């Protein structure tokens, strides 16, 4: 915990070494978020880097409200900035889906608590989500994975709440068609 606080204070002070440590520590986290929104890995990397520029410009405004778990608060703050930067980048990106995969080094950094099956399931799920149209994909990511409400999604994307709900329903219908279930209805894998 003290390590995170030291890096954070160094970033606030504008220390390049602390900024590098911060960037290296949270880059894979940011890339996985951005890649859920932006279709091409190269563009996802650009969006993540844009997010880091915004993070370093505004890091002095970050406040630790829970001193017992500052890293969880920091990661939530980073996540929100990366999501917004990714949505901004989506508007620049072609709407034609591109076949791009996230490099294996990013999947390997998925976290120490995940086992091999969890990583494989996560990877399959993200691959399937990426088959959604951009409009359905962004609403699904915001609502299901990132926990936004329909009013927040509507405001963020400048769409109606009804459009948000409709896009979510269509995304869920698409994803449900691609689940392979066992006899008890549990999802086993994706087609």
Largest sheet: 2 strands, antiparallel
**Number of helix segments?**
9
What is the count of structural domains?
2
Could you tell me the mean pLDDT? 82
Ranges where pLDDT stays below 50 over 5 or more residues in a row are 109-113
Short description:
This protein is mainly alpha-helical and 191 residues long.
What does this structure look like?
- This protein has 191 residues and is mostly helical.
- The protein has 2 domains: 1-101, RNA polymerase sigma factor, region 2, helix turn helix motif (Rna Polymerase Sigma Factor, Chain: A, Orthogonal Bundle); 110-191, Arc Repressor Mutant, subunit A.
- The protein contains 9 helices and 2 strands; from the N terminus they run αααααααααββ.
- It has helices at 2-12, 16-37, 41-58, 70-90, 104-108, 116-129, 134-145, 150-157, 161-177, and strands at residues 179-181, 187-190.
- The protein has a two-stranded antiparallel sheet.
- A hairpin with a 5-residue loop joins strand 1 and strand 2.
- The longest helix is centred in the N-terminal third of the chain and has 22 residues, at 16-37.
- The chain starts with a helix and ends with a strand.
- Mean pLDDT is 82; it is low at 109-113.
């Amino acid at each position: 915990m003290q390590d995170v606080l030291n890096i954070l204070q160094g970033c606030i002070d504008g220390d390049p070494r602390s900024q590098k440590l911060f960037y290296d520590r949270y880059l894979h986290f940011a890339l996985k978020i951005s890649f859920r929104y932006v279709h091409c890995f190269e563009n996802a990397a650009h969006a993540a880097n844009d997010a880091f520029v915004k993070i370093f410009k505004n890091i002095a405004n970050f406040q630790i409200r829970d001193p017992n778990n500052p890293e969880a608060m920091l990661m939530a703050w980073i996540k929100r900035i990366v999501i917004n930067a990714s949505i901004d980048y989506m508007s620049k990106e072609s709407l034609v889906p591109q076949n791009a995969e996230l490099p294996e080094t990013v999947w390997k950094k998925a976290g120490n608590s995940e086992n091999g099956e969890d990583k494989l399931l996560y990877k399959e799920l993200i691959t399937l989500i990426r088959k959604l149209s951009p409009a359905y994909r962004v609403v699904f990511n915001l609502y299901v994975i990132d926990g936004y409400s329909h009013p927040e999604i509507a405001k963020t994307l400048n769409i109606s709440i009804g459009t948000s709900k409709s896009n979510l329903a269509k995304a869920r219908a698409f994803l449900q068609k691609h689940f392979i279930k066992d006899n008890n209805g549990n999802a086993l894998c994706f087609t």
